[in-house]
Automatic annotation (TrEMBL):
InterPro entries: GH, GH13_cat_dom, Glyco_hydro_b, O16G_dom_2
Organism field: Streptomyces flavovirens
Domain Glycosyl hydrolase family 13 catalytic: 20-437
UniProt keyword terms in alphabetical order: Hydrolase
Record-annotated membrane-spanning stretches: none
Gene3D superfamilies the UniProt entry points to: Glycosidases (3.20.20.80), Golgi alpha-mannosidase II (2.60.40.1180), Oligo-1,6-glucosidase, Domain 2 (3.90.400.10)
Entry protein name: Alpha-glucosidase
Record CDD domains: AmyAc_SI_OligoGlu_DGase
Keyword Hydrolase: yes
């Protein structure tokens, strides 16, 4: 469906579904084992069949790939690994020709340390013209530069270790919130902001339809850069209070909108990835009257199954916590702002393994349930490549099987602390970002149809059973369930515009809610059994024998006042108000 049909053109994204492509792992057209732009072009019919509206393309710029492309060394070109600018233009034309839009990843909290901006900042010395394009500081007073503890503050990098690296030639440290090869840009410098804005205009002039802004709420730092609280058991401080939604973040985003987004004659989509953002802050960021962002991408719900030790300290998910979190965001952005709806992306382990049940008995059904619950919330849903097939976590045997810098650094750090190897690997198998980055499973051939060469990371061996070719041929597959959910969003106003009311908030196995749209006179009821046993539920009045719109099992039983859901069963019902 053309995106500007059926709804207000200025908020087309409220009725859209976004599909994220991680190009390195999507489709390889030249047998080098790495996905590329031509591979994406060759597989666009898959997206058309699914019915999605927007393609979000993870970074394809030149990069040393320390963080798999999120360390950019040239913002205005394409990495030869992925193709050329001409290939990108052909992709963009093909996307638009299918009635879809293309959104690019904008990574401007940091660059690569090989970006010309940084090399000029580093090599030009303290008086160089681009020194203050990055955040440089001397050693602590009274400390010998380059020695342990001499860093300007005690902040920990998100990828383990200190957030500061010493440059011996210049005699100062530079800040890197992530890898040491990802130095943070200094957004306090207006020249930096102007350079970012010029780069964004350049891509808009090529025809892209918006930006997903990577960790954009981290770009404003407290200039004092104070020490952070040191959590128990850690060697470093938590600097996030000084840069998560920092002091000038609203000013910077309003400026981006005013200088870049508003002047564009097309209605663009701007999505801000914002770790640590609160509901109250998100309302400000996405309030249309403030002209900052359209949608916020938040992380609260994907942190609910983590213990005090962080991401790799795995804890069972409590369904009541998940309902409370998602419900709070539904209510908090109910009258102002807009939600992102997602389970998966390139940074998250596969949801069917994480929140569902990836055993052969329940894998497909739990994948469908998870899709049903998510897509019936209010907001813009995101489908990450392979999610529509029910792709699961990979069976990594040893640390040699991993590729992700976050995982490798965590393994190195925990090993140095004497932690048991199997304990470390258990956390990595469950939560490593590499779970999201194994190649897309197109068919049952040796490398899943991803490449005829040797893939950069091993294909999940379950591809012989779980693949796009098999699911396209099966009308009851996970793929076709996603297709039906996406079609429902395009045709049922209550999915997009209806209010949200959570039912049974304290139930640890039932996820149930209603969506009511007064304008269309329609109400929807969503019922989902998050478990491997039958569940009998008492329905609110008036839903007996209502119309079934979507079900993850064939021929669901008609609704009764006391209704039994089978294991991992979910369905959606409609009635007229």
């Amino acid at each position: 469906m053309p995106l500007d049909e059926g709804g207000p053109a200025d908020s087309w994204w409220s009725e859209a579904v976004v599909y994220q492509i991680y190009p390195r792992s999507f489709a390889d057209s030249n047998a080098d084992g790495i996905g590329d732009l031509q591979g994406v072009v060759e597989r666009l019919d898959h997206l058309s069949r699914l019915g999605v509206d927007v393609l979000w393309l993870s970074p394809v710029h030149p990069s040393p790939h320390d963080d798999n492309g999120y360390d950019i060394s040239d913002y205005q070109d394409i990495d030869p690994l992925f193709g050329t600018l001409a290939d990108f233009d052909r992709l963009l034309e093909a996307v638009h020709g299918r009635g879809m839009k293309l959104v690019m990843d904008l990574v401007v909290n940091h660059t690569s340390d090989e970006h010309p901006w940084f090399t000029a900042s580093r090599d030009g010395g303290r008086q160089g013209s681009r020194r203050d394009w990055y955040i440089w500081r001397p050693a602590r007073d009274g400390m010998e530069p380059g020695t342990p503890g001499a860093e300007p503050n005690n902040w920990e990098s998100w990828f383990s270790g200190s957030a500061w690296t010493y440059d011996e030639a210049g005699g100062e440290y530079y800040l890197h919130t992530f890898s040491r090869k990802q130095p943070d840009l200094n957004w306090e410098n207006p020249e930096v902001r102007q350079a970012v804005q010029a780069m964004m205009r350049w891509w808009l002039d090529r025809g892209v339809d918006g930006f997903r802004m990577d960790v954009i709420n981290l770009v404003s730092k407290d200039p004092a850069l104070p020490d952070g609280h040191v959590p128990e058991g850690s060697s470093y401080g938590d600097g996030s209070p000084s840069y998560v939604c920092g002091p000038r973040i609203h000013e910077y985003l309003a400026e981006l909108h005013r200088e870049v987004i508003a002047p564009c004659p097309r209605r663009l989509l701007t999505v801000g990835e914002m770790p640590g953002v609160t509901v109250e802050e998100a309302r400000l960021f996405t309030d249309p009257a403030r002209r900052e962002l359209d949608i916020v991408f938040q992380f609260e719900h994907v942190g609910l199954d983590q213990g005090p030790g962080g991401k790799f300290d795995v804890r069972p998910l409590r369904l009541t916590d998940l309902k409370a979190s998602l419900g709070r965001w539904q209510t908090g952005l109910g009258d102002t702002g807009w939600n992102s709806l997602y389970w998966n992306n390139h940074d998250q382990a596969r949801v069917v393994s994480r929140f569902g049940d990836d055993s052969p008995a329940h894998r497909d059904r739990s994948a469908k349930l998870l899709a049903t619950v998510l897509h019936l919330h209010r907001g813009t849903p995101y489908v990450y490549q392979g999610e529509e097939l029910g792709m699961a976590n990979a069976p990594f045997a040893s640390i040699e099987d991993f590729r992700d810098i976050e995982s490798l650094n965590h393994h190195r750090e925990r090993t140095a602390l004497g932690v048991d190897e199997e304990q470390i690997l258990a956390g990595l198998r469950d939560r490593s970002r590499d779970n999201a980055r194994t190649p897309m499973q197109w068919d049952a051939t040796r490398h899943a149809g991803f490449t005829t060469g040797t893939p950069w990371i091993a294909v999940n061996p379950d591809h012989v059973h779980v693949n796009a070719e098999a699911q396209l041929a099966d009308p009851d597959s996970v793929f076709h369930h996603y297709r039906r959910l996406i079609a429902l969003r395009h045709t049922e106003p209550a999915v997009t515009h209806g209010d949200f009311h959570l039912l049974h908030p304290d139930h640890e196995q039932l996820y149930a809610f209603t969506r009511r749209d007064i304008a269309s006179g329609t109400e929807l009821l969503v019922l989902a059994n998050f478990g491997g046993t039958d569940l009998t539920v008492e329905l609110p009045g008036g839903w007996e024998d209502s119309e079934t719109l979507i079900a993850d099992l064939p021929a669901p039983a008609p609704l009764t006042a006391s209704h039994t859901l089978r294991p991992w069963e979910a369905h959606v019902h409609r009635r007229t108000l």
